[in-house]
Amino acid sequence: MEGAKKDNQIIADYVGRGGEERKGKDMIKEDTIGEESKPFPSHPRDQFLYILKEFSKEYPYPFNEEADGQLYDYTIKTFRNIVDPIREAEKKIEYWKEHPGALQSKGKSPRVQLHEFFEKEAEYQGVSGATSEGD
What we know:
Blueprint (H helix, E strand, L loop, with lengths): L1 H14 L11 E4 L7 E4 L2 H13 L8 H14 L6 H14 L11 H15 L11
Helix pairs in contact: 1-3, 2-3, 2-4, 3-5, 4-5
């Protein structure tokens, strides 16, 4: 639990207190053939949280709805229209699945690693620093 508090503080330092709450809202059913229907979020923020939560069921990702939601909010605010957090999280998750030891590598929590992955993607696309809300 201590690590989650630390992650929350790291992300909160970036985000501030303006994140939206969407707990349990905007849910739809995803129909699948031969499988039981599973709830699938319709809002991108909820989709981001959903994929991290599902990943945490099989791998040691410390899912925390508040901290991961803040990470999403920060990424959208800072790299608006540059970084797709859902696509980038899916890429990082695939990497972690192929290299499970990387989840705990470099002394950094997986959430911080994910945050840095988003920053590197933004740098790769030629963006440095945050965009202002008025842009």
